[in-house]
Design goal:
Elements: H1 15-20, H2 29-38, E1 41-45, H3 52-63, E2 87-91, H4 100-118, H5 129-144, E3 148-153, H6 157-160, H7 166-185, E4 190-197, E5 214-215, H8 230-236, H9 238-247, H10 252-263, H11 278-287, H12 293-296, H13 301-307, E6 321-322, H14 324-327, H15 337-342, E7 347-352, E8 357-361, H16 365-379, H17 384-399, H18 403-415, H19 419-423, H20 427-442, E9 459-462, E10 466-474, H21 478-487, E11 500-509, E12 514-521, E13 527-530
Parallel strand pairs: 1-4, 1-5, 2-3, 3-4, 10-11
Antiparallel strand pairs: 6-8, 7-8, 9-10, 11-12, 12-13
Helix pairs in contact: 4-5, 5-7, 9-10, 16-17, 16-20, 17-18, 17-20
């Protein structure tokens, strides 16, 4: 007899549908129970595709008293009464969010739906979104004898989508500000309120009237409220792991490591708790393939629009230190770091308790690839499809130890870079950016995880069998680059690794805008030269 197929709820946002249709559900209700008991007015920031909508849907079902949906879940251990409350749930992740008129139309329509459900009578003089929302909360609470629950999902979509359109931005702010102010103005009629989004604008004028919202985005207790931990991965997805392991002809243990390298690495607090992107994990199991799902789900539009005008050396972002205040700030042209963190391109790597600062990193292989495909057309003038193809070729060459093929592929990639790219700023900065994109393309974050006492190499790439230590020089000899690797001891951390180490010195020509020559030192100490064919 065939076993019942496992349902992986890719993109599902309804807790009720997941539970009634028998789909896999990662139980977060223990954390939700803690949240509801300890807080009342809450704000949470997480990147897109991270389960915020499902979280609010679960909270909605809880406050509606749908006890049967929670049978067997952790929260059932703490709850006996299952009292129901009126829930007002707004999803502002509308495709028309960039259009103030469409956004207002949706919000008025949603308010009207609740007015009809509860029989609310509104005076002719109450016409604005904020006014009607405030009256709705008060009327329902007085009519039912119960306080309301307010849930607002993706509150910032209309702000992000119009960040470069000042008139539309101001109209959306004017629309949303009085709406959110009701969370404080009507607080005596509210049992619980939660607002989620990507960007953390709560310290700005949009939330000036709702300053009672408690930001839990960095709190240790809620580090894993969204996302999938390694323990949850093993507990809830043994069949998916086994199926992928069979597909790739490797052990389940090794497949877990592959999944973590590709989709894990997100961290949102001082606690050393890492989570995987749930959307990508579910897609991987549903499709039985390790794909690039985060990128294909749609790049954050504001990220692309903003970085095209940013005055910032993106090659410096990985490993940068930042305070919580900075990460919570509204980004500007000179500092895209808050945007990169809020949208999920960067995450917390470590925390310095003495300085109270976070060191940031690119979360995982999937995001690294997405970042390269975004940067390639934006800063190198290379179409994303061609950039992805070149990146795969570079990785393949390293896996096969085809260094000559690697050099020629890289040279052909650089040859595609339009001339104006080299005219922006200094030639050094142009090549610095090329090297950074190369790091992303071959699957490493930056030079190495920890800088050495005498600096660090431009690129350290790892495969199962080989380690490549590469130093680049602009308008200097490849020999000087190779000598620097030895003089500064860049290979020392890897001497006992067991993999074969290749030391490579590379020269770039700013005049010809291509690779000069490479000197390769093999594990046995032999040195040979590679000169690209510039085809």
């Amino acid at each position: 007899m065939n076993s019942k197929p496992i349902i992986y709820p890719v993109g599902w946002q309804s807790f009720q549908e997941i539970r009634t249709q028998g789909a896999v559900y990662v139980d977060k209700t223990g954390i939700i129970a803690q949240l509801i008991r300890k807080t009342r007015f809450v704000f949470l920031s997480r990147p897109r595709r991270f389960g915020k909508s499902l979280l609010l849907s679960t909270i909605e079902a809880y406050f509606q008293g749908k006890k049967d949906l929670f049978v067997g879940l952790e929260i059932s251990q703490y709850e006996d009464d299952w009292e129901s409350y009126p829930v007002l749930h707004f999803d502002l992740s509308r495709d028309e969010a960039y259009n103030p008129a469409k956004l207002e139309e949706y919000m008025l329509k949603k308010i009207n739906e609740y007015e009809l459900i509860y029989g609310v009578t509104v005076g002719d003089d109450v016409t604005s979104v904020g006014g009607r929302f405030g009256w709705l909360i008060q009327y329902i609470s007085q009519a039912t004898g119960k306080k309301c629950v307010i849930l607002v999902d993706e509150y910032d979509k209309g702000i992000q989508e119009t960040i470069n359109d000042k008139p539309a931005l101001e109209r959306n702010q004017k629309l949303l500000r009085p709406f959110f102010s009701q969370i404080k103005a009507q607080d005596k009629y509210i049992k619980f309120a939660m607002v989620t989004g990507v960007a953390r604008f709560r310290h700005y004028t949009l939330f000036s009237g709702a300053n009672n919202l408690e930001d839990i985005s960095f709190m240790k207790a809620y580090s894993a409220i969204c996302g999938i931990t390694v323990d949850e991965l093993k507990r809830y997805f043994p069949e998916g792991i086994a199926s992928l392991a069979e597909e790739y002809e490797e052990s389940p243990e090794h497949m877990v490591n592959r999944l973590l390298q590709k989709y894990d690495g997100y961290r949102f607090s001082r606690a050393n708790v890492h989570v995987c992107n749930p959307f990508s994990i579910l897609r991987a199991f549903s499709n039985n393939i390790l794909g690039e799902f985060w990128l294909t789900s749609g790049t954050t539009k504001v990220f692309i629009d903003f970085l095209q005008n940013a005055n910032y050396d993106l090659s410096e972002i990985n490993g940068i230190w930042a305070t919580e205040k900075r990460l919570s700030s509204l980004f500007d042209d000179n500092d895209p770091v808050p945007l990169l963190f809020q949208t999920g391109y960067l995450t917390i790597g470590s925390y310095n308790r003495d300085l109270e600062e976070y060191q940031l990193k690119i979360p995982n292989g999937e995001v690294r690839g997405a970042l390269f495909e975004d940067l390639a057309p934006m800063f190198l003038g290379i179409p994303s499809t061609e950039g992805a193809k070149k990146a795969q070729m570079l990785r393949s060459c390293l896996i096969k130890c085809d260094i000559e093929g690697f050099v020629n592929t890289l040279d052909s990639l650089i040859a595609k870079v339009p001339y104006p790219i080299f005219e922006k700023g200094s030639k050094e900065s142009a090549y610095h950016l090329i090297v950074y994109c190369l790091c992303l393309a071959v699957g490493v974050d930056n030079c190495c995880e920890e800088p050495l006492a005498d600096g660090r190499p431009d690129l350290v790439a790892f495969t199962d069998k080989y380690i490549y230590i590469i130093e680049f020089k602009l308008d200097k000899s490849a020999e000087s680059a190779l000598n620097q690797i030895d003089d500064k001891g860049y290979a020392r951390p890897y001497l006992n690794d067991g993999r074969a180490i290749y030391r490579i010195g590379a020269s770039f020509s700013s005049e010809k805008r291509n690779i000069g020559c490479w000197l390769v030192q093999t594990p046995s100490g032999e040195t040979y030269e590679i000169t690209p064919n510039h085809s």
